[in-house]
Every structure is written in C-alpha cells, then in structure tokens.
Amino acid sequence: QVQLVESGGGLVQAGGSLRLSCVASITFFGLKSMGWYRLVPGRQRELVARITRDANTNYADSVKGRFTISRDNAKNTVYLQMNSLKPEDTAVYHCNSFPSVNWGQGTQVTVSS
To answer: Up-side HSE of residue 106: CA atoms within 13 Å toward CB?
Structure first.
C-alpha cells in the first residue's frame, strides 16, 4: 500500500529551524524524484524543493539558500531542513513522488513573528 507519512513540523519563532521527514512506502523509491510541497489555505500547493534519484536538487526562489532537501534511500525517507524560517513559511508541508501518489496528511509548520 502506497503511503506517505510526514513529520517534524511544529511552532517555531522567526529565524528558527525545523527538520521535516517523510517516510515513503513507494515501490522503487530510490529510482524516483521526490518533492516537498506546502499548502496554505486559499492558495495553490507550491513545490518548494525537489530531489532527483541522483540527488540533484532544485528549489523555489522563496526558499533558496534557506531550505535543503536530502534523501536516504535505505530508509525510504526524504528530509527538508528549514533554516532562517519566516512567518510566510507557515503552511502544511507535504512530500510526494514524481509521478505523484496519494497525498499524506502533511505536517503543520507555524512560524511566529
């Protein structure tokens, strides 16, 4: 059964850091690109970071230089290290593969000013 389980969110002050984790029960995880997305009510889901199977990465301009995506194929896990957090980073963060599978519940990140 395909499953995505995100964790690591929480409440943090502006300038703080969080590390998100996503355990993906996906066939051939190591062969797939993975992405972290965020969703704010009333707005479209935004892709913030992507990592290929070869560990090449790219980022949305809004998080470049602050967020780092990584993966551990042995653990079927993708991470998002978030530093220098800003209030505008507040959202529910989800991971997914390319092509996408059913979305997990996500993890809430709230950054206070």
So the answer is: 16
DSSP state of 15: T
For residue 81, what are its two tokens? 């290290």
Structure-token pair, residue 98: 């390319």
Structure tokens at 85: 């957090």
Q: How far apart are CA 14 and CA 1, in angstroms?
A: 38
Q: What would you measure as the largest C-alpha separation in the chain, in angstroms? A: 41
Q: Are 60 and 49 in contact (CB under 8 A)?
A: yes
What confidence tier does 97 reach under pLDDT thresholds 50, 70, 90? Answer: very high
Give the confidence band of 40 by pLDDT, cuts at 50, 70, 90.
very high
